[in-house]
Amino acid sequence: MLNAAQSPLYRDLERILLTREQIRRRIDEIGEALTRDFQGKDLVCVCILKGAAPFFSDMIRAIDLPLRVDFMSISSYGSATKSSGVVRILKDLDRDIVGQHVLIIEDIVDSGLTLSFLKQNLLARGAASLSVCTLLDKPGRRKVALTPDYCGFEIEDAFVVGYGLDYAERYRNLPDIGVLKPEVYTS
Ligand code: 5GP
Q: What is the pTM of this model?
């Protein structure tokens, strides 16, 4: 596992916002809540690629239920730091979700545009219920009303990377989450 003190990847960070230990503890707590709430239900966990992949893989292992997994890839950001509001499906679910209880697992909710599109899109396919679990939430930046059902951490309005979150496809492999130095994306 990368060491924050030694890895050159960490030099571009202004500071570490959430450590791998904090993330792990919170995932265990959310896992207990999900295990309780989805008891006896047909649960499908949907990973929103690529950013949610590390969170997804840790999160599903904290849910003690016979769930299924599926993956979707959408574009909403490109390599810029602001949402365009335009959502395109790059990879769709492999199986239909009629009558299933769907849990979308996402990395971060910012404007809310991506998730409100996804919620409408998946509900229209006949899911029995649709819930959202996000690791991070920036409630101060919302452009549409959207409240995640499960949230790891509410954070300030700063551009963060690590634990799946990228800038220009880099930093996804940092085990911790940090605030990127502004000069990295303004230069
Ligand atoms: P929204 O549609 O809610 O504005 O944006 C959601 C998507 O924007 C996230 O899935 C993520 O890809 C990207 N995003 C929003 N804020 C950040 C951030 O601070 N860091 C990174 N790396 N991506 C972000």
A: 0.94
